[in-house]
Recover the amino acids of this structure.
């Protein structure tokens, strides 16, 4: 595939899925100067500063809770459109811009519409960076990512872009290889994608939090 056709394929794929809901709208191109390059997640103080700000915003006493919430938001904004588009759009930090503020939370966009490595490979440096500034389990972080993939599949089915069976098959393929193979399981429920994860995102540990629908702690 040449550069022009790759550029067009990525843009068309993003256009096709962006209307599902706001989490599927992944913008392209360099933003204004208030945004940081994705590489600022990997070096310098920006990641820790952001996690600390999330801890303050949600009154989270444990740093790992804020770290989990950051990665939950980060992966929701990247994996929702990628899951729906079903092509390996480049979401490596070097092809990203990001911005966080207390009021509007996290925003992410890609720099160039191009194809890249599998999502897990693209996300791995960010997982390592988060663990470098905050003690949080890898399984929890990858569980957050898989939870967002499953949630995106649910929305794709509701948008009538896939049947529930097709969506579940896609999700099962994702969980057939590391780092997602222990993330959870899809449950049989006619006409709907239903997922239960094996780890907890810890949202219930913030002041006004609760347990999510796919939480293993929900009985």
């Amino acid at each position: 595939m040449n550069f022009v056709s790759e550029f067009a394929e990525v843009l068309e794929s993003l256009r096709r899925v962006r209307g599902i809901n706001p989490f599927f709208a992944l913008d392209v191109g360099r933003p204004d100067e208030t945004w940081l390059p994705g590489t600022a997640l990997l070096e310098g103080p920006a990641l820790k500063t952001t996690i600390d700000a999330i801890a303050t915003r949600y009154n989270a006493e444990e740093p790992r809770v804020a770290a989990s919430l950051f990665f939950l938001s980060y992966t929701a904004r990247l994996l929702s459109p990628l899951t729906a588009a079903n092509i390996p759009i480049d979401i490596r930090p070097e092809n990203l811009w990001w911005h966080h503020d207390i009021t509007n939370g996290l925003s992410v966009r890609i720099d160039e519409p191009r194809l890249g490595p599998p999502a897990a490979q693209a996300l791995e440096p960010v997982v390592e960076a988060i663990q470098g500034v905050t003690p949080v389990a890898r399984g929890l972080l990858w569980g957050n990512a898989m939870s967002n993939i499953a949630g995106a599949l649910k929305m794709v089915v509701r948008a009538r872009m896939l049947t529930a069976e097709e969506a579940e098959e896609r999700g099962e393929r994702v969980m057939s290889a590391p780092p997602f193979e222990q993330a959870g399981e899809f449950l049989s429920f006619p006409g709907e994608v239903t997922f239960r994860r094996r780890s907890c995102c810890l949202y219930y540990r913030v002041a006004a939090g609760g347990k999510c629908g796919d939480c293993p702690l929900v009985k």
